[in-house]
Amino acid sequence: MRKIIISFCILFAALSLQAQSVNGIRIDGGNTPILVYLGGNQICLPTTTCFIANLNPGHYTVEVFATRFTRAGERVWKGEKLYKDFVYFDGRGVKEIWVDGRDNIRPERPGRPDQGEHRPGYGHNRVMNDQLFQTFYKEMKNEPFKDDRMKLLNAALAGSDFTSAQCLQLTKLYTFDDDRMEIMKIMYPRIVDKEAFFTVINTLTFSSSKEKMKDFMIGYGKR
């Protein structure tokens, strides 16, 4: 009788697992061994296919690097970056990402990402489009905690640039100058139209806050 009960429990567990739908992001490197990073964290050892299961709906920064298979105890080699994008996953099914030439791979911007220089038309293909930004804005607005908002914002900045108008909209999520200035300072390196950033600064309440932000921009440009 005990054996029958145990067998039934095993069968029930197996059927339950089959009934559960698997969802997540699948990254296929074809014949190329790859390393996959999600939100800056390595999530797999060298492999040709990596599946990130049971993700919550939301935006994720996905980076894929070429690598080679290693032996036990050998250090993992991180090679050329093959893919980087700010990916939205709706929580349903499997989102496929191909990085062996079958997908639209975005090139990295030349130079340091934190350079203060702005060149007209430079990097505009990385600006978050209006439709995606509205989705991102709603997610930011719905986050009840400041730390969670900052994590979401930093994840977005890792894969996208923004306009001054978009930054302005995000700063309006906050009431106090200190919070707004924090958003401005984080986003400023990724603003493509820095000549229009004065429109963001002018929304600050106090003259002292505006002066602090102007000093920040001047100091940033000298880096």
From TrEMBL:
Residues 127-217 form the DUF4476 domain. This is DUF4476 domain-containing protein. Pfam families: DUF4476. Residues 103-120 have a biased composition (Basic and acidic residues). Residues 103-124 are annotated as: Disordered. Keywords: Signal. It comes from Bacteroides vicugnae. InterPro entries: DUF4476 (IPR028011). Residues 1-19 form the signal peptide.
